[in-house]
Specification:
3-stranded antiparallel β-sheet, extended, 5-stranded antiparallel β-sheet, alpha+beta, disordered N terminus, 3 domains
Amino acid sequence: MKLNNILTQQDYFQSDKRKRYGDLQELPENTPSLLLSAIYLGDEQKVYLKFYDSTSNRIYFWRDRTNHKPYCYTKTQYKNIAEKIVQIEKKYSLESTKKIDLISDKEIDILKIIAPDPLSIGGTENSIREKVTSWEADIKYHENYLYDTGLIPGSYYIRKGEEIKRFEYPISNKVQEELKNLLWNKIKEEEDKKGNKEYRQYITNWAQLLNQPIPNLKRVSIDIEVESEEGRMP
């Protein structure tokens, strides 16, 4: 069965139509494609990346190969509680790590709690965040995954073997000339000032990101009119 549009592909992720990974069209090699989103499939306990190939107008998927797992953090003052939970519930594991505490602006020792699935972190009465004071336990897992892997929805990627790599189309000469006239020359004049090199790198990254081609995605909008009872708001 061939699927050629986004709506049909999205049907794959409805609860009554969910398919196994082998039924989905895998991202082919050497095909620059736009990353649309990340989706977590509970049956597979895996994140799937959804890509759009503007040349063929097809949706492709790519299953996570990094063995990334859901997690949250707790401070060392709650270590005893966390260890007791891990001893009882073997699905969890603990790792010692360090993070910058933005309040005190210091590096502190913390515990990373790793779980097999997002609901073990948060979302149910039996989740770890209901049992021990936790941090980063309310972040949607697919967003957490994108952040940790450095993947940016709206950017282009290309498959090389079993890896997904960033693909960038070159910036047009016109944009490069405008950047040079408006920014680079000015920054060069003040190059002795602290932070200019870092600032220029940020501008370069954003210019590259915002000047990638935007495909003409097929999309549907729905306007819903709801009639409320008289005297009731909303």
